[in-house]
Each structure stands twice: as structure tokens, then as C-alpha cells.
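About this split. The held-out portion is used to measure sequence recovery: a designer receives only the C-alpha cells and must propose an amino acid at every position. Recovery is the fraction of positions where the proposal matches the reference. Here is one held-out target exactly as it appears in the evaluation file.
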């Protein structure tokens, strides 16, 4: 199917005015896709797949036109943006979803907390393929590199089975200085940098520690730090084909 026949939802978790989405949307539009941009009004990083308060309330929106593209902000999460678009709240439902460009990488098993990744998984849960794209910097200089990678990934995903999801991390460097593109495993949860601590006022809080030593070879964490674009196909919630728990519980309830 030609790009102009495909409607692509662009969303993120950094907000509809964030520089990442403002770099991503025109790059996808330039490839010929019919672009729809719907994202949170403000920063919703780390919200995962939350859609609290979705049912039975009007959802506040705002719009801005920038560079010939309309950016719509919603008072809600990235997963809510995907859900609203998928049920036709902003016209025709999207054929594909691209989430990003997230400021900062999304690596390892803890990506299930990421609003960027959760938006892509929400799309998959509704039968739509999606790409989540993050850049390895909190203050990026090369948004265009990540936008180019996102466009190529979108082109690849078009003929794949519906519900296909890729999470991609891109080094913050010029396109011609990338080390390459590699399939990457998710760094295990034991690599999490989150630690619990106590604020000076006595309340509990969490902080990030520096990356741990002895990283896992061929993981997204290692390959990204070596200058590679990391590509990891992921799936959302699915059942395990194992009835042992139900059988054991049934025996206990006899």
C-alpha cells in the first residue's frame, strides 16, 4: 500500500510541544504518509499504559499548527491518545502508530513503565502495528537522525503482520556516525538503576544510580552505548499456555 493511503498516528509521552515530536511528525509526513498528531498536553513520562479517567468525561484538548502540521494535545496519557485516535475521535482511525521521539533512551525490561513504549503496545492491543523511538540523550543534538531511523522502521513495518511492535533506541550522533543497526535483547531487570531513598524532609523517594558494572552482552544497554541503533521486537500481555496453576487451585478448593 502506498504511503499516502496510510494514516499514521504520531504520539509521545513528552508532550505535544516537545522537540522530539516536532522533529518526528514532519519526517514521517515527508515520506508521504497521512499524518495525525495526538499527544499529551504535558510531560507524561513513566506513566506506562495508564488510561485513568478515560470513560465518561470530556477530555480537554488544545491544538497548534506548526510547519503545516496540526499538533493536538490531550489532557491524558499516550495510551489514551492512541485509544482516542483508534476509536475515531480525530477522524479516520490510524493504520500505523509511531511513538516518540522520546528524550532519553528506553532500555531493558523496565521499558514497560515507559509511556512511549506503552503507546506502541496499546496500538498493538488494538490490532495496529507500531514503532517506539527513543534517543540516547536528555538534551539531544541530532533529532534528525532518530527521525530518519523512525521513518525507515515505519516503512519496514508496513507489510508485517498487524500488531507488530518495535522499540528502537538511537544514539545522539549524526547519521553517518552510527556504528550500525543491531537486534538487541532487553537488558535484564537486575540492571535497573532505580533505588529507594529518603528525602531530607523524611518522605520516601527514588533516585537513579550510575549504570551498573558488567553489562549484558548484546543487550540494548550495551549496543546503544557502543553507538548502534538497537531494534527490539516486543509483544504486550499474552497468556501462558500452562494450566498448572488452575489445576492446583481447583484441587485446593475441592
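Reference sequence for scoring:
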Amino acid at each position: 500500500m502506498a504511503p499516502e493511503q496510510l494514516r499514521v498516528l504520531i504520539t509521545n509521552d513528552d508532550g505535544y510541544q516537545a522537540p522530539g515530536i516536532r522533529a518526528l511528525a514532519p519526517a514521517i509526513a515527508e515520506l508521504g504518509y497521512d499524518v495525525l498528531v495526538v499527544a499529551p498536553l504535558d510531560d507524561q513520562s513513566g506513566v506506562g499504559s495508564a488510561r485513568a479517567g478515560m470513560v465518561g468525561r470530556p477530555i480537554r484538548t488544545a491544538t497548534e499548527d506548526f510547519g503545516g502540521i496540526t499538533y493536538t494535545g490531550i489532557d491524558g496519557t499516550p495510551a489514551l491518545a492512541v485509544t482516542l485516535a483508534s476509536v475515531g475521535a480525530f477522524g479516520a482511525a490510524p493504520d500505523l502508530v509511531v511513538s516518540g521521539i522520546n528524550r532519553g533512551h528506553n532500555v531493558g525490561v523496565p521499558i514497560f513503565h515507559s509511556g512511549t513504549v506503552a503507546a506502541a503496545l496499546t496500538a498493538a492491543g488494538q490490532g495496529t502495528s507500531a514503532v517506539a523511538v527513543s534517543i540516547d540523550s536528555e538534551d539531544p543534538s541530532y533529532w534528525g537522525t532518530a527521525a530518519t531511523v523512525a521513518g525507515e522502521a515505519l516503512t519496514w513495518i508496513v507489510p508485517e503482520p498487524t500488531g507488530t511492535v518495535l522499540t528502537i533506541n538511537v544514539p545522539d550522533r549524526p547519521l553517518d556516525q552510527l556504528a550500525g543497526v543491531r537486534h538487541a535483547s532487553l537488558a535484564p531487570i537486575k540492571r535497573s538503576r532505580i533505588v529507594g531513598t529518603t528525602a531530607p524532609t523524611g518522605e520516601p523517594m527514588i533516585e537513579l544510580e550510575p549504570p551498573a558494572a558488567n553489562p549484558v552482552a548484546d543487550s540494548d544497554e550495551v549496543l546503544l552505548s557502543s553507538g548502534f541503533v538497537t531494534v527490539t521486537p516486543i509483544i504486550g500481555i499474552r497468556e501462558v499456555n500452562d494450566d498448572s496453576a488452575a489445576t492446583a487451585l481447583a484441587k485446593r478448593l475441592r
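Annotator remark: The chain has a mean pLDDT of 91.
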